[in-house]
Each structure stands twice: as structure tokens, then as C-alpha cells.
Amino acid sequence: MERYSPSARSDRYGNRINRTQSPLRASIVPYASILIGSLLPFLVLADVMPIAPPLGFLILLGWRIMRPGLLPLWVGVPLGAFDDLFSGQPFGSAIMLWSLTMIALETIETRFPWRGFWQDWFSAGLAIILYLLVAMLVSGASITIHQFVAAVPQILLSVLLYPIIARMVAWLDRFRLSRSRRIG
Amino acid sequence: MAPNSSRRSGHSKRAQYSVFTGYLLAGLGALAGAGLLAISLWQPSAFSDLRGAATDVAEPAGEASASVRTGSDGVWESIKAYYRAGSKNAALQEEVQIARIRLAEAEAVEQENARLKALLDLAETDTEPVASARLVGSSASSSRRFAYLGAGRDDGVEIGMPVRSPRGVVGRVLEVSRNSSRILLLTDSESVLPVRRASDETVAFAEGRGDGLLRIRLINLGLNPLEVGDVFVTSGAGGYYRPGVAVAILNEITPDGGIARLIADPSGTDFVSVEPIWQPEAVESSETPVELELEE
Fold it and tell me: Hey, which residues does B181 pair with through a beta bridge?
């Protein structure tokens, strides 16, 4: 008798027979991960200078770049409002900046449809640097040269963290689409 | 990576409209965000209720992470303490002996102080803290330096009250909600604190620079009398902080004062205490506009 290899019945999303994806999980995971990312820097006690990368924004970039079209274009409004509640920035700064980021990434994608890892990292890094600098300008603090110097470690850390965030988002995407629901 | 063909709208009118609507909503969202931002910058307390409610919800998580943070700090400190334990022990014993002598001297001074105060008929009581709580979080990804405290209106905390750790001043309460409050740390670039040199009456302002250091700006310009290592304490001017609480140590001298390091490091403290406003009358009168004062 001909036998199938056991791995033929499953792929990276799990067993293909008798299983299907959970629509709830597929829709919740991206938003939940961004909200948790917004909340995490709140728990870090930074009394000297900004040290925590803006995790919510990084995870948003990760989802937007890894899965174009999954998040609607206007998603910066509700998610940015949540981020503003915990980031210490004046309310409205993340709403504005996250919306502008979504529009900018959409424009980049229509202009350069063929993308790769390095280009993704480059556009994400540019977005992170611009986001952190503009966020500093609108934070309500009187800007001095010392603040720019103090922000350099945070900017570098955030840019270097992007590839790790992208891998994490890819893992979350596999988890999101794994076949967890049993049929019949 | 190849472009995703499902995202091209092509000739489908419906797909084209949905792309257009997406752009429109995102653009409107950005404009609304800019409007809200302008309101928040113009009236910084505009959305404090919303923020306060959110902080109240997140406060238990912050409490848990704060206890883990202080616990792990303790473990790290005890590992570090083993390094060169013998020589450190000898140095500490010598220091304790000197400290005992100084303590006895201080007791004598205190006694004399009490006697002189009795002569002058001055009644001064120590201030009882309003509440003591953990710092549950901070604005770690923003360039502003705020911390969040696990005590709020229900514990008697009010806007303007000074917050201190056993070592010295940490900051001032900026916004209060039910179970949590937001604190403006001394290192924030909008924080200004009236101080004086501990050894004499040289008065100055300690302003946050935004990078963890304080800028000491002397009020009386002229020859700069400061020296590296000078300790600054609160002067009591302004009425918020009670005088004589440690603030900073001078690190570097500049033409108009100096650059100082904080004495009370908020991330190294377990519990902080909220104290009542020292002279509420002085704070109230400083907030009354001159025109109103003249009418009365």
C-alpha cells in the first residue's frame, strides 16, 4: 500500500485535515500585539532619559510592512489614541504621526512595488527616526541640544530592533493563521 | 518580494472607492490628531481625565512590575556586594565609627536648636506624609520625564504636592486620578525648583535639562561662588516644597551657575512619599493674577 509521508498532511500552519483557522484569532492578534507594545514602555522606569523604544509603533510598522493591506489605512487613529494615553506625549501626537506613517508607507509601496528585506529595514528605520524626532518636537518640552543627544541611544536601539520585531511579527503571523479550530 | 496583486484595485469601481475612502479617512485622522495635539499643547490638562482613567486601569500591572524591579535590583546589589568584601568591610567599619561621632555631635546641635527655638517661641512640627506608594511606571519612550505613582485622589493626593524618596526630592504631582497620579520628575525640561546651597544662603533655580542632569542657575549674578561637590537643598521659596530637602550635587561649573546630578534617583527607590504642600497660602497667592488681587 502506498503511504503518505506524515508531513504531507500538514504545513507550517498545522494539520490540514479536519482543522481550520480561527477567524477570531486571525483578526485579533495584530491589534492585540500593537496594544501590548504601546503598554510595555509604560512599565519601564526611565528617570534620566528616554530609553525604551516606542514598541507599539515598531510593531505597527512590522505588521504594515510584513502584511500590506491587513491593517486598514486609518488604523493609526484608534491605535494612536491608545498609545497617547500611556506614552506621556500630549494627546493627539500619536494619532497624527501614526496616520501620517500609514499614508507614507502606502505611498512608498505604490512607488516601489518590488521590495526586499533591506529596503523594508531602510523605510522602517527612516520612519522610526522621523517619528522620534517629530514626537520630541511636539512633546511640549523646550528643546535643547542636550535632549537631542539624550535621544540618540533610543533612536539607535529602535532602528536596530526593527529586524527582531519583524521576525516576531512573522512568528505572530504564523500563530495568527495556524489551524486551531477542529471541524466536525 | 513580489507585489501583492490582490491589493491592486484595477477596473473595479468598488475597490477603487474603498482605496479612496481609506486615504480619506487616514488623512482626516491625521488632521484630527493635529487638532487634538494643538488643544493638548495649548491646555496641557485637557485630556487628563481620559489619561487618568487609563492609568488607573494599567496601575495593577505597574505595581507588579515595580515590585519585580525593586526585587531584582536587590539581587543585583547583593551580588555586587560580594566583590572585594573584605576591604569594603574594613572601610565601612571605619566610616561607621566616624558616623557615630558625627551623630553624637548632631544630637548636641539638635538639642541646642530645640533650646534656641524654645527661646524664640517657634513651634515647628514635622510634616506627616499624605501617602506613600510605589512608582508604577514612567513615560520611558517619550522625551518628557513623567512618572506614575500608585496612589491617587482616594489616598488624599492633590495636584502640586511634592513627592520625595528617603534620599531627597523626586518631583511634583501634576495630574491626579482615582488610584494613580502623574508626577513631573525633576529631570524634565519643564521642571524648575527653587534651591539653595546647603552650606550657606546662595539661592538658585534647579532646572531639568531633559538628559538627566539639572542646570543650577544662580539668582544673584556676579562672581560664581559655587564649587564642584556643593550640595543643594530646597529653599522653600514658592511654597510647594518644605525647605532643607536634598536635591542635587554640583558636577560642573558654568559661568552662570553649574550642572548638577540628582541625589534621589527615582528608579533606585522602592517607595516614595507624597507630602502636603508646605505653604498653601503662598501657592494660592502666587496663582492669583495681579488684577484680581488689586480689585479685592
Answer: B149, B176
